[in-house]
Amino acid sequence: MKIKVEELQASLLSSPLPHPLRRPVQGGQVTIYKRDCLLVRARANQGQVGYGVGTPSPNVAQLINRNLRAAVVGLNPGNLAGLRRKVFQRRPRYPGLVQAFAAVEMALLDLQGRIAGCPLSELLGGRVRGRIGIYASGGVYLDGEESVREAGLWAGSGFSACKLELGRSPRQDLQTVCELRQAFPPPWGIMVDARAWRGEHYGLEETARLLREMAPSRLEWVEEPAAQEDRESLRQLLEDCRIPISGGGSENSLEGWRDLAGRDWLDVLQLDVLHLGGLVDGHRVLREVQPLGRRVAIGRLSTPLEAAALGQLASCFGADLVGWMEWPQYSGEGRSGTYPFRLAEQMLHTPLWIDKGELIVPEAPGLGVKINESVIRRFPYRTGPCSSFQPTGP
Predict the structure, then answer these.
(1) pLDDT in tens, 77-89
(2) Average per-residue pLDDT in the chain?
(3) I need a labelling partner for 338 at 20 to 30 A (CA). Which of 47, 193, 288, 309 fits?
(4) Cβ atoms within 10 Å of 347's Cβ, excluding its own
(5) Following CA atoms 195, 196, 202, 206 in sequence, which dihedral angle do they give, to the nearest 10 degrees?
(6) 298 φ/ψ angles, rounded to the nearest 5 degrees
């Protein structure tokens, strides 16, 4: 009997916080209510099941359950090239289709690996290492004391680097970085997510001054202090500061990411594989970038299933190219983090193995993990925004 996909289903899920989390930021307050997740399940006619995750939006879920299901059901799960032609040669091309395809592709690759009895990395081209350096990503709009406390707990768990999302105010952000560096001198790595600085929040001159003042703290990088489409501002910041700048994670097209990779505007390229088209495209662009001598960090993770998939991808390249992978820190019993994300915590039957700040890439077939399908029933989708911003004063 020929193997073919018999069922494809995207489930949009929500993990509400026990209580809304409120954080002060420049010009107001951010309130976080929940975290959403999109889980894709593909079942073959012989009973094997593959899983994927993707951009958690009703639009993407609808595209998978309506448009892509019709293209996938009845298809050999190994015929990804044929599926790509079938999906992208049609018109019109709906917004979100690239992200929907990326989630389905992950599930089909997982299914292929389980059928073939090999890890996903072998389907992508073969792994060259089994351990990937990861950094703890947490601390949203923390002050210096809070960030030092969080980093201390992460260091106790074996991490050697962390990334903080700053944006309370220029003065407070500088103080946070200085206090963190004083408590954790090099070689501890500090990264800063500066997306909240952009636009009218801080302004270009204030951002440039802040980067100069943070330079003595010897940061690994500052991420996206200017919007990727604002190339002139990005160029000015690169000329003016002595801190490595990273970007590319907000690019909305593979062509735009390739354009950034071919220029000297960024010190570290951020690759959001699932936003740009999927694991196969991710492998392709990493091969293209490799001869250029660029440094790449894989980011924008939210669940351990993504981490398993992206770890499989990163294992196909050496640490000289893919040096870091983001590891989101969520709070839980005996664990410190930004906020609880119970759905992510319960998604896998067995947690991924972290050793001395490195992810041990699973060697079992497919993604190498076993999904706890009960999360589909236990975390139904809740409508409404995940977060909101409330400005202060006129």
Answers:
(1) 999 999 999 888 8
(2) 91
(3) 309
(4) 27
(5) -50
(6) -95, 125
